[in-house]
Amino acid sequence: MMSTPTKILLVDDDPSILTLLSRIFKSYFQDSILLTCCTEPERAAGICISEEIDILFTDLDMPGLNGFKLLKQVKAKNVLTQVVILSAQPTSNALQSAFALGANEYLTKPIVRDELIETTRYLIGQSKRWRQCMSADLASSGR
After folding, report:
1. Residue 5: is the preceding peptide bond cis (ω within 30°)?
2. Angle at 129 between CA 126 and CA 131, to 5 degrees
3. CA-to-CA distance for 57 and 9, rounded, in angstroms?
4. How large a percentage of the chain has pLDDT more than 90?
5. Which CATH number goes with the domain that contains 70?
6. φ, ψ for residue 40 (rounded to 5)?
7. pLDDT digits (tens, 9 = 90+) for 67-114
8. Is residue 49 part of a domain?
9. Is 1 among the domain residues?
10. Which helix (DSSP H) or strand (DSSP E) does residue 42 occupy?
């Protein structure tokens, strides 16, 4: 079970950002992740509701459902989902709001490859640790 790939969902209304990020993820993480890319935040919300997503990377400024609203919906469904906000306009208000809503990380655009990889490695580890704790709790309560 330790070899289960980490499920990562990338959400950005700019397809070129998704292409760039998915290339980075695929070259560095290969088979250790299952990557889904989505340009429509409403569709991404549906994916997060129907599947267990380990890490969500979402753009902040999108038409319709913005990154904050998506973050709220995802955390309401599964508090263990790690959420990374991606934003071209980092402001202290946006940063504070993101963390108040449960974001785990906030990366600014243009995305720095090494920062993205380091953040992702950390969150993959954290996600696995959290899931191990949850499965241990479930196993002990099932006795």
Report:
1. no
2. 110
3. 6
4. 78
5. 3.40.50.2300
6. -110, 115
7. 999 999 999 999 999 999 999 977 899 999 999 999 999 999 999 999
8. yes
9. no
10. helix 41-50
Report pLDDT digits (tens) over 101-118: 999 999 999 999 999 999
- pLDDT attached to residue 82: 96
* Other CB atoms within 10 Å distance of the CB of residue 6: 20
Angle, CA 67 vertex, CA 96 and CA 25 arms, to 5°: 105
CA 110 to chain centre: 17
Whether 48 is covered by a domain: the verdict is yes
What is the domain range of residue 75? Answer: 6-141
Q: For residues 27 and 30, what is the distance between their CA atoms, to the nearest angstrom?
A: 6
State how far the alpha carbon of 100 is from the alpha carbons of 43, 94, 97, 137, in Å: 24, 10, 5, 27
- DSSP-assigned letters across all residues of 71-90: HHHHHHH-TTSEEEEEESS-
Does 35 reside within a domain?
yes
Closest to 68 (Cα-Cα) out of 78, 79, 54, 83: 83
Q: How big is the CA angle at 82 (ends 56 and 20), to the nearest 5 degrees? A: 35
Amino acid letter, residue 34: L
Residue 94 CB neighbours (<10 A): 17
Tally the domains of the chain: 1
